[in-house]
From TrEMBL:
Protein EC: 6.1.1.1
Subcellular localization: Cytoplasm
Protein name: Tyrosine--tRNA ligase
Gene3D superfamilies: HUPs, RNA-binding S4 domain, Tyrosyl-Transfer RNA Synthetase
């Protein structure tokens, strides 16, 4: 149990500040502070768990928000456990869903897991990361063990989940196996003796089940830290491939750099908070400098280079900057440009030009494309029938007309 004698020293307070950076909620903060103090006093690192179901083989920057937090805690000297939910993936996580989610096959899970950890290792220090699969302890449970585990949690508590309640009241079927998902995720924390579990805000219920099950098994309950869902490049919806507002970590350096440079100055600080490894003091100093007159573009370039270097190389980040500047050398991107939001994505390029106010008519839009005078994110557009999916783009006509266009 926590030691009340362990003092909350300035070092512990600093550790707590790092842990809370950008988080949505830390439950229970006082308990976690005591855990940090005990770790400092004894030299025994905390065990910090992140469970991820390999439901897709590729991840984008939105997925890395929680990985970044793991890395920050790892750099404080704690043990981070990257838990691949090969067992729970076969159940299917019902979080936030209105219908039963089809479980993955063992083959699909294995295929996705091949690349998942390799991508996560671009954020985590692989040499200091404990990799586990929850089939290690879930498969041996068997039918008897599963029944015993199920006896430790009530249906009433399970129905407190908002999505289960909504589906039940709406007459939408809930399969019994879906109740097993939060139970098995919670049992992972028992098996790993986790001190802290991380997840997105949509995982809060599941994380708290782990806390309750640890109490049932006589363990000190884990604390829970939830991270917000990162807004996409449009600054409106959460980052999502289906919405076209994502930045994939496997994208080319040039593409990644260009997308980061296209975000608004306001959204840039959100990305700094959740994606950058710069200290809070560094970021606060940068914000102060910009308020005093420094060009916001400098800060955006620094962010874009940091992110590109993390997922590629420092040289790739430098080359991406050079390429970005070369593409706009003939008509430098203005620091301030009109920002336009348009619906009904995907939208044809000619209509985008008209509705963004960059041309006066469809014929003018067509003529500019034919003459090579239209660029989107620096790339010359030659196809008059081009359809732009949802996302945010810097659209240019000629040398002087620009607009930051968000398609929804």
């Amino acid at each position: 149990m926590s030691s009340p004698e362990s003092p909350l020293t300035p070092e512990v307070q600093a550790d707590l500040r790092i842990a809370k950076r950008g988080c949505d909620e830390l439950l229970v903060e006082a308990e976690f502070a005591r855990k940090l103090a005990r770790s400092r006093a004894t030299g025994v690192p905390l065990r910090i768990k992140l469970g991820l179901d390999p439901t897709a083989p590729d991840i984008h920057l939105g997925h890395t928000v929680v990985l970044n937090k793991m890395r920050q805690l790892q750099d404080l000297g704690h043990t981070v456990i990257f838990l691949i939910g090969d067992f729970t993936s076969m159940i299917g996580d019902p979080s936030g869903r209105n219908v039963t989610r089809p479980p993955l096959t063992a083959e699909q899970i294995q295929e996705n897991a091949k690349t998942y950890y390799a991508q996560a290792s671009l954020v985590l220090d692989a040499a200091r990361t404990e990799i586990r699969y929850n089939s290690e302890w879930s498969d041996p449970l068997g039918a008897r063990g599963m029944i015993q585990l199920a006896s430790r949690y009530t249906v009433a508590r399970m129905m407190e989940r908002e999505d289960f309640t909504r589906r039940y009241k709406g007459g939408i079927p809930i399969s019994v196996h879906e109740f097993l998902y939060p139970l098995m995720q919670g049992y992972d924390s028992v098996a790993l003796k986790a001190d802290l579990e991380l997840g997105g805000t949509d995982q809060k219920f599941n994380l708290l089940v782990g806390r309750e099950l640890q109490k049932e098994y006589g363990q000190e309950p884990q604390c829970v830290l939830t991270m917000p869902l990162l807004e996409g490049t449009d600054g409106v919806d959460k980052m999502s491939k289906s919405k076209g507002n994502y930045i994939g970590i496997s994208e080319s350096p040039s593409s990644m750099f260009g997308k980061l440079m296209s975000i608004s100055d306001t959204l840039m600080w959100r990305y700094y908070e959740l994606l950058s490894f710069r200290s809070l003091d560094e970021i606060e100093l940068l914000q102060k400098q910009i308020k005093e007159g420094r060009n916001p573009r400098d800060a955006k370039v620094m962010l874009a280079q940091e992110i590109v270097a993390r997922f590629h190389t420092q040289k790739a980040a430098q080359d991406a900057l050079a390429d970005f500047e070369a593409r706009f050398r003939d008509g430098a991107i203005p620091e301030d440009m009109p920002e336009v939001s348009l619906g009904a994505a995907p939208l044809g390029i000619l209509k985008v030009l008209r509705e963004a106010g960059l041309v006066a008519s469809g014929s003018e839009a067509q003529r500019n494309v034919e003459q090579g005078g239209v660029r989107v994110d620096g790339d010359r557009i030659e196809d008059k029938a081009l359809m732009l999916p949802a996302g945010t783009y810097v659209v240019q006509v000629g040398k002087r007309k620009f607009a930051r266009v968000t398609l929804m």
